[in-house]
Amino acid sequence: MHFLDSAFVLATLVSLVASQAPVAKGCTREQLISARDDFWKAAEAGSEPKLGASVKVALNNKITPLASTPFAKIKSSKFTALFVQAVDTEICEIATFRVAADQVLSTRLKLDSAGAISEVEFLQAIQGDQFFRPSGFPATTPPMFSEKQIAHAPPTIPSQWTPAGGMFDHKAAINKSTCKAMTGEARLWTRKELIYAANSYCDGLKGAPYDSCTFSGKSCPRNENGVTTTQNCGVGMGMFGFTTRGRRWVADTETGVVLGAFYFEYSTAAAANNLFLHEYFKVREGALSYIFAPMKNIPHSQAAAKTFAEETS
User: Which domains, and CATH codes, for the chain?
Assistant: First the structure.
């Protein structure tokens, strides 16, 4: 064999090995959707899904065997046509929101570098939970949740801001005249910018001055477990005085849909109930335009548990 032939064969082998190696960072949209669909198909068939060796499974922020989660009963649930998803290719996570007569269900999956599911998280609300009224959700998915992100001038994110804490611990640095300022050429927002907009809602629930910095649009319906509590999520939000903790995010840069997982800290007493939520925000043309908020009251110790990692920057 000639030297050039040997070099060609070697290069080909290296290329093949590289193409089969696990992706170190990031996933494709198609890969995440396929993994989610296969997970649901396994549930419907009563078979085992493709899980990583060290998979972490939780129901309402509590580590739970998969067989004791909604996965075991998905095949018996008749879900409506309402289907909301956030596909985050940068952190290899996909979140899905669905509704049936017997449950309101949010499911978040994370893939490892080999494409196996490394995290499974459910938030499930059922009969008896706060505001539980599945019939109060739209029968089908509002079209905006499937629309592509629309280019808009980007926000200016303060240096003190973090995904996990927003601006909550930097009250003195908040400038009400600039916190919602958008400058520059219109473009699609980055993952960080989408989270910044959604996160402003978490801050705003505490009241002044945070509520002046919430990216709410002229119309922003908020539906909690099937009850529409407002047609404009930014009006009067500060009156609640909620402290929002444990913030985690799944952001879809293609559609501008963002999942925020967090809890409202009513009390720090271990036995006191706090409201745990998976909120699906639609960020549209620089503003929050719709929120679906499946939620569940759980003990503070359970809500505050660091079951899954938060982003710090």
Answer: 29-143 (3.10.450.50), 148-303 (3.10.450.50)
Predicted confidence (pLDDT) per residue in 247-301, tens digit:
999 999 999 999 999 999 988 887 789 999 999 999 999 999 999 999 999 999 9
CA pseudo-torsion sign 288, 294, 297, 301: negative
User: How many residues are recorded in the chain?
Assistant: 313
Contacts of residue 65, defined as CB under 8 A and 6 or more positions apart, other chains included, come to 57
Cis peptide before 154 (omega within 30 of 0): no
Tell me how crowded residue 46 is: count the other CB atoms within 10 A of its CB: 9
Tokens of 34: 């396929």
